[in-house]
Amino acid sequence: MHDGASERGMGLTSFRRYTWWAVPGTTVCFLVVFFGVWILDGDVPLWARTPAVAALAVEAVASAVLLSGWLAAPSAGHPHPVRPPMGWLLAAGVATVVLAALPLVRRNYGLWAVAPAVTVAICATYLTPRRRRLLIVGAVVLALLPGGAVSLAAGDGELAYAALFPAGLIAFTVWMVLGPLWAWDVVGQLDRARQLEAELAVKDERLRFAADLHDIQGHHLQIIALKSELAARLAELDPARAAEEMRDVQRLSAEALRDTRAVVHGYRRTTLDEEIANATRVLAAADIDARMTLDPAAVAADLAGPTRHLLGLVMREATTNVLRHSHARHAEVDYRVTSGLARLRVSNDSADEHSAAAESTGLRSLAERLRAAGGELTWGRDGDRFVVLASLPASANGAAC
After folding, report:
1. How far apart are CA 311 and CA 401, in angstroms?
2. I need a labelling partner for 373 at 20 to 30 A (CA). Which of 32, 237, 241, 325 fits?
3. 3-class DSSP state for residue 393?
4. How open is the CA angle 140-146-150, to the nearest 5 degrees?
5. How much is the pTM?
6. CB 147 within 8 A of CB 109
């Protein structure tokens, strides 16, 4: 049994323990009760009782071992089942022949098929689904023959009972044994699915963390590089302006460090208002004419926190792409709320012919997050312009990140 902490948390240990004892235990009791009554019957001669007792003991032990071995196998229920212990399987086969022949000789049509039914059910557990079906169908069909042949030879008039009852008994026994084992398989698959879900949740969180870190470091480093280059050009022409730009570099470096620490602790929340204001300063420093069209109703709208956060990330990524993947001289930002949707459109001219933004990992990651929040993010070239368009529900219950 697999008594792991995860199984205890879901109550799987109790179910596995119940199945572990119930299936082999019920099977052994089934054999002992049916054959015990027959062996103790005074009409059964001694020559039949003695081998029946020995065969019953072997069959009971072999059945318990084979079923327990299947339940203990790590690959039980997988497409490639485990191999049964051949020694015990051979012992069960020999005992089955003895327990079938002795009652059949005595014309006990209701008992002779009990041991074969148990053995067939046990063998079926170790087979693939296709072979399992073939075994069960074949066993049910063959079970019609021995009792029917003996009844015809004896002329006792019990042909229907002698032929049909053993076939029905085999079908019932197989169902009785395989039913709980099927439930065992389903529970095992559900447990594996739950573990996979937990692993995926961890991976999703890692991807989210990586995306946030990419947003922070990529954006800040791009601006720091831009301002450092500008300060280098101004160092001789305008030392005061160069010093001012370097002070901005120092401030941006401190912000990047603070934001990185905040991401690690899970506290950082980018907002659209901050990113629009930051984009205005950054684009102006890069000598890009940025036109901001902000709908007063949108600015005054009480957007949900997740909506402002996601739109802020889009604004940051779009600004970074303008600086990194274009030779823009003009950029436009349009933000408004229409039909219950907060819409942000960022465009720039002089986009590269094969703009790397089209393959931007940051935009693809943000598109997935916006879709999860009920929104949409698209981007692409429109003539010589590159356009990023984001929309999210403006209501508080419409977005989540």
Report:
1. 11
2. 325
3. strand
4. 145
5. 0.50
6. yes
Note whether 362 and 214 are within 8 A (CB): yes
Cβ atoms of 96 and 115 closer than 8 Å: yes
- Using left for φ > 0, alpha for ψ between -120 and 50, and beta otherwise, residue 11 falls in left
Both tokens assigned to 298: 């949108």
Say whether pLDDT at 42 is over 60.
Answer: yes
What SS3 class is residue 333?
strand
Q: Which of 58, 100, 114 is nearest to 66 (CA)?
A: 58
How confident is residue 358, by pLDDT bands cut at 50, 70 and 90? very low
- Residue showing tokens 């001694």: 46
Task: Give the three-state DSSP class for 81.
Answer: coil
Mean pLDDT of the chain: 81
pLDDT of residue 142: 93
CA triple 16-19-24, angle to 5 deg? 135
> Which two structure tokens, joined as six digits, stand for 97?
């022949």
**Could you tell me the domains of the chain?**
5-198 (no CATH), 288-401 (3.30.565.10)
Distance (Å, whole) CA 362 – CA 323: 14
Kindly list the distances between the CA atom of residue 200 and the CA atoms of 33, 204, 337, 346, in Å, as whole numbers in the listed order.
50, 6, 35, 33
